[in-house]
Design a protein that fits this description.
By secondary structure, the chain is α/β, with parallel strands linked by helices. The chain has four domains: 212 residues, Thiamin diphosphate (ThDP)-binding fold, Pyr/PP domains (Rossmann fold, 3-Layer(aba) Sandwich), CATH 3.40.50; 110 residues, Rossmann fold; 171 residues, Thiamin diphosphate (ThDP)-binding fold, Pyr/PP domains (Rossmann fold, 3-Layer(aba) Sandwich); 57 residues, Alpha-Beta Plaits. It is 36% helix and 16% strand.
């Protein structure tokens, strides 16, 4: 039923599921009829697990980006169906335009927006807090503390959504998404009626005058939701009341689970009161005040911004991120929560002095430095970057979001901002240097096939229309590799495994007005270098030039690509370019010099072009 066949747990009737799989089960059980998403860690597995049900009454799709995904789901909700859209936290930035408007117009069928946050961050550009954006938009947000709670909150979110005609955000963080728990099975699925869209132009196509009225209605909904029994039911006293505790903790999401564990493990049940809040927006401070009656000071534990703390500061004596009791950035770890709680007045302490939270973060940063991520052995992107540097040495290389961000290690990526920005920034550099008296540098933008479809197309249209001239490399490996190999529009594959329409990248590029286009194989290295040089000449002449670098992701290739190279140590001059600058993980520095690990080498052969003295040569693999 699920990818990777989650194991059954002792006792029967349960499966050990990822938090993301638990959310998918919750969506299925709640009668979700349409689910859209764009892949991004830590949210990716939700749609994959939902698609694995193979339900005939459930449409699932990998949309081209998060904005399109949300807009598609909105139409499903307008038709009376329960729908969901799924993304990571930075994806919500892309979907913010329809999200802000949707809060005003509202919904018919329940609409759940699942946004997976990444405190840390571990795999994102930012550790932004979705709860803050939900507050700005006026959309309720649920913050689960465990995988089981995230599954339960799916149904709660749909119920609130339909009761008030408002979208609801479910915000699991990475630790919820990627932890495992036993979830009861089998699942059931309710029936639903046919789709029916009831026209109401004053609502669905509201003019600014009607938007003013809809804003007032939204404000009334938010006030009502804050006091609704469904919302207040997420406020839980996790620790049995002690004898007049003087200190309390208000926590949301995973930090609530950490705090409960610390309090019980340290024997502080009779000294502290802990309130877990499952719906941090809209918050009901009066309810929290009543639950903490008699408590003098309250510590607020939440990730990552002071969302609840800011609201409660007007009602209670609170401490947290705003006063520095907790660092203003970074993930709330069990160790950090332990340190913070043990520093509270009246909390028991060990004989060892408790380190401050800020000191803990500085120490953890040094301990967790680790090795930087690198491209896979045999990855065609490494060849593209090496060819780019050879063909356009000393240029400005604007990068993008994907596996190829790791081109930084090869010195072939100078900027990384957000999805699609490589093209816009290349155009910006072209115009910036064009306004000065100095020479125009060689400029190249590098973007992947999935990211190009996600956010690069408008940027390319704009660059062509404005007359910018630079080289654009589209690295087409036929998949969204960074998030686990989801299909791209260029593959024609659908989320459920069926065949859709193949959308060729070259047709998109020429449709954007580009006339100078090369399609090359990065593993044919010399041809690749020549093609990039030709494109650079075109760009120097004032025209946009695009090179599609097409080679399948090495993780999708079952067989070795070619013979395994070997290194002639007698010919090696010890320059370490192959290990330190080329960075292929199959080449390591041994006790006597560089060595190629045969069982890790797929035989791409690009390293032969990297070694200046020619010490790397081919040997036929027996």
């Amino acid at each position: 039923m699920y990818p990777d066949s989650p194991a059954e747990t002792p006792g029967g009737g349960a499966r050990l599921l990822l938090g993301n799989e638990a959310i998918a089960q919750g969506l299925f059980e709640a009668g979700c009829r349409m689910a859209t998403a764009y892949p991004g860690t830590p949210s990716t597995e939700i749609l994959e697990a939902l698609a694995a049900y193979g339900a005939a009454d459930l449409h699932v799709e990998w949309s081209v980006n998060e904005k399109v995904a949300l807009e598609t789901a909105i139409a499903g909700s307008y038709s009376g169906l329960r729908t969901a859209t799924i993304m990571k936290q930075v994806g919500l930035n892309v979907a913010l335009d329809p999200l802000m408007s949707l809060a005003y117009t509202g919904v018919v069928g329940g609409l759940l927006i699942v946004v997976a946050d990444d405190p840390g961050p571990h795999s994102s550009q930012t550790e932004q807090d979705t709860r803050a954006l939900a507050m700005a938009a006026g959309i309720p947000v649920l913050d689960p503390a465990t995988p089981e709670e995230s599954r339960e909150m799916v149904d709660l979110g749909f119920r609130l959504s339909e009761k008030y005609g408002i979208p609801v955000i479910l915000r699991p963080v990475l630790r919820v998404c990627h932890s495992r728990t036993a979830i009861q099975t089998p699942v059931s699925r309710p029936e639903s009626g046919p789709a029916e869209f009831c026209k109401d132009p004053d609502r669905w196509a509201a003019t600014p005058k009607h938007r003013y009225t809809l804003h007032g209605e939204l404000n009334k909904k938010i006030r009502a939701i804050a006091s609704d029994p469904l919302s207040l039911g997420t406020y839980k006293n996790l620790i049995v009341d002690g004898a007049r505790p003087s200190f309390g903790i208000v926590a949301s999401g995973v930090p609530a689970a950490y705090a409960a564990d610390v309090i019980r493990r340290r024997g502080l049940d009779d000294r502290l009161k802990l309130i877990s809040v499952g719906l941090p927006f809209p918050l009901n401070p009066e309810k929290i005040s009543s639950m903490l009656r008699g408590v003098e000071t309250i510590l607020v534990l939440e990730e990552t911004g002071p969302v609840m703390e800011t609201v409660l500061a007007g009602y209670l004596n609170v401490s947290g991120r705003l006063d520095g009791a907790i660092p203003s950035e970074g993930e709330m770890t069990p160790d950090l929560v332990d340190i913070v709680i043990r520093k509270l007045p009246g909390a028991s302490r060990t004989s060892i002095e408790v380190a401050g939270a800020q000191d803990y973060f500085h120490r953890a940063e040094k301990e967790d430095a680790g090795s930087p991520p690198i491209l896979c052995a045999g990855c065609s992107h490494r060849s593209s970057f090496w060819a780019l540097k050879q063909a356009m040495p000393g240029g400005i290389y604007t990068g993008d979001i994907g596996c190829y961000t790791l081109g930084i290690a090869l010195g072939a990526v100078d900027t990384v901002l957000c999805m699609g920005a490589s093209i816009s920034q290349a155009a910006g550099f072209f115009w910036a240097y064009g306004q000065s008296d100095g020479p125009m540098p060689a400029i190249a933008a590098v973007i992947g096939d999935s990211t190009f479809c996600h956010a690069g197309i408008p940027a390319l249209v704009n660059a062509v229309q404005q007359g910018a001239a630079f080289v654009l490399l589209v690295l087409d490996n036929g998949t969204t590799a960074m998030t686990g190999g989801q299909p791209t529009p260029g593959t024609g594959m659908l989320a459920g495994g069926g065949n859709g329409k193949h959308v060729p990248l070259e047709g998109i590029v020429t449709g954007c007005g580009v006339s100078e286009l090369w399609i090359t194989d990065p593993l044919d290295y010399k041809v690749m270098v020549d093609d990039i040089r030709a494109a650079a000449d075109v760009a120097a002449g004032g025209e946009m030039a695009v090179v599609i670098c097409r080679s399948p992701c090495v993780l999708m290739i079952d067989d070795r690509q070619g013979a395994v190279p070997v290194i002639d140590l007698d010919a090696c001059n010890g320059c370490r370019i192959c290990t330190d600058r080329f960075g292929c993980p199959a080449i390591v520095w041994g006790s006597c010099g560089p060595v190629i690990i045969a069982d890790q080498c797929p035989g791409c052969g690009i390293c032969l072009h990297v070694c200046a003295p020619g010490a790397i040569r081919l040997e036929v693999d027996a």
